[in-house]
Amino acid sequence: MKKSKYLLSSFVLASLMLLSCGNKEEKASENSNADIPVSREMIAELTSPPNVPTPVGARKAKKLIVEMEILEKEGEMTDGVKYMYWTFGGTVPGSFIRTRVGDEVEFHLQNHPDNKLPHNIDLHAVTGTGGGAESSFVSPGHEKIFSFKTLNPGLYVYHCATAPVGMHIANGMYGLILVEPEGGLPHVDKEYYIMQGDFYTKGANGERGLQPFDMQKAVDENADYVVFNGKVGALTGDNALTAKVGETVRLFVGNGGPSLVSSFHVIGEIFDKVHIEGGEMINENVQTTLIPAGGAAMIEFRVDVPGTFILVDHSIFRAFNKGALGMLKVEGEPNKTIYSGEISEGIYLPEGPGIQNMPTTDEIVASEIPAKSFEEQMEFGKQAYMQTCFACHQAEGQGIPNAFPPLAKSDYLNADVDRAIGIVLNGLTGEITVNGNKYNSVMTRQMLSTDEVANVLTYVYNSWGNSKKVVTKAMVEKVKNN
Ligand code: CU
């Protein structure tokens, strides 16, 4: 049984080999890049993210000396949250290594004497046992040297592979090594280095202080932080990537993991080309590319219009709640044909006669029957609440953590009735603090009549432990006319 299967597969294989051209047959048996001669010795330029070293261009293959220092050092995950990172070269991700095919890389792995642990390195660009891990296991205060020849062009992850491997990677021990093809990659105007990683801390997301690694959360793949370049905000605000309209951009994007795969996406931009999984195959016109843990992609696009383009893991709670968010700021002249921006806002009424202007609050139709008593105010107010407010603030006014503030026992609400009336009438955008927690969301202006505003606020103030104020139509009108 086994034998006939073997014979059959040999037959299929032989036919395939006969069909394929001689060139491919050769490539399958040996990698001719192993024969590329090297001329001279050269010290590799290493860079910290998001920067990358100078392209190889037309340079010949060389003996390339890489000196990589391992540093265990404290850093900031986000405001007030410290983390003990383990790093290649002092950064997460580690220093970018840029080689060309045929280079003979002499790798010097140095473990700083102040470090507490032994480490090593597994480079996915290495053809050989452990990707170098076995030859590079090095104790604090020591250096290990090994060498390898780059046989396959592509973008590769490197990482520590010392037990417990998952923990070393989770603490930030990963980076990228690029092997350029003969003659180099095509010219682009800007190149950047980005790497996603998931982090697991004893405290919940945002809990202050020095946060130790949490092994159980890591095993469960229940990340507290999912970030680009080692921390929340590494690529936002003043740290944003930049480009000018008309420039071509290449992103070297890796995923260190240890566990989560990345659905990498840039909001408002389409990838012209993606070297999928960092290899030779190019996909064109891509919206989101999947980057496996321990994998990478080369992404290229031309920026055509100005604006801030948001880099995300499109597993979207990771972006907006766990940190996987970066920015590319593009300056230059707008092109209204490619993107107009907002042209106008009208009101949309499916049954109506057509597009009308937004009504002012005075024009909003008053509820048909005004409430005649406190009990009716509560009843009508509850109806309005369940139609208008419930989706965000929830049935018991408890809100949604990190998204929408609570109305129950709310210090913000109870402190100022006029302010509350104003928010229902005009909406609210920006950061506020409610019961000690910060919220930064958008509440749009609500289409409620003066009566309805009075009723809904009376209902809210007289529910869930609030201050039992009664809001009248006159109070709402006073705020409206201020
Ligand atoms: Cu390590």
In short:
The chain is built from 12 helices and 24 strands. The chain has 482 residues and is of the alpha+beta class.
Structure characterization notes:
A hairpin with a 2-residue loop joins β3 and β4 (about 80-90). The protein has helices at about 1-20, 20-30, 135, 165-170, 215-220, 315-320, 375-390, 390-395, 410-415, 415-425, 450-460, 475-480; strands at about 40-45, 45, 65-80, 80-90, 95-100, 105-110, 120-125, 140-150, 155-160, 175-180, 190-200, 210, 225-230, 240-245, 250-255, 260-265, 270-275, 280-285, 290, 295-300, 305-315, 325-330, 430-435, 435-445. With about 475 residues, the chain is an alpha+beta fold. About 20% of the residues lie in helices and about 30% in strands. The chain is built from twelve helices and 24 strands. The protein is elongated. The structure holds copper (II) ion. The site of copper (II) ion has 6 residues, from loops.
- Class from helix and strand fractions: alpha+beta
Mean model confidence by pLDDT: 91
User: What can be said about the biggest beta sheet?
Assistant: 6 strands, mixed
Q: Unreliable stretches, pLDDT < 50, 5 or more residues? A: 1-26
Which small molecules are bound?
copper (II) ion
With helices defined by DSSP (H or I, 4 residues minimum), what is the helix count? 12
Strand content: 25-35%
- Shape, principal axes of CA atoms: elongated
Span between termini: 90 Å
**What is the rounded Rg?**
30 Å
Care to count the β-strands?
24
* Percent in helix: 10-25%
Q: Secondary-structure blueprint of this entry?
A:
Layout: H1 2-19, H2 22-29, E1 41-43, E2 46-47, E3 63-78, E4 81-88, E5 96-100, E6 104-111, E7 122-123, H3 133-136, E8 142-149, E9 154-159, H4 165-170, E10 174-180, E11 190-199, E12 209-210, H5 215-219, E13 225-228, E14 241-244, E15 248-257, E16 262-267, E17 271-275, E18 282-286, E19 288-291, E20 295-302, E21 307-313, H6 316-321, E22 325-331, H7 374-388, H8 390-393, H9 411-415, H10 417-426, E23 428-434, E24 437-443, H11 450-461, H12 473-480
Parallel strand pairs: 1-3, 3-6, 4-12, 5-10, 11-15, 14-22
Antiparallel strand pairs: 2-5, 3-4, 6-8, 7-9, 9-10, 11-13, 15-20, 16-19, 16-21, 17-18, 17-20, 21-22, 23-24
Helix pairs in contact: 7-11, 10-12, 11-12
Bound molecules: copper (II) ion.
Residues 86, 119, 160, 162, 168, 173 line the site of copper (II) ion.
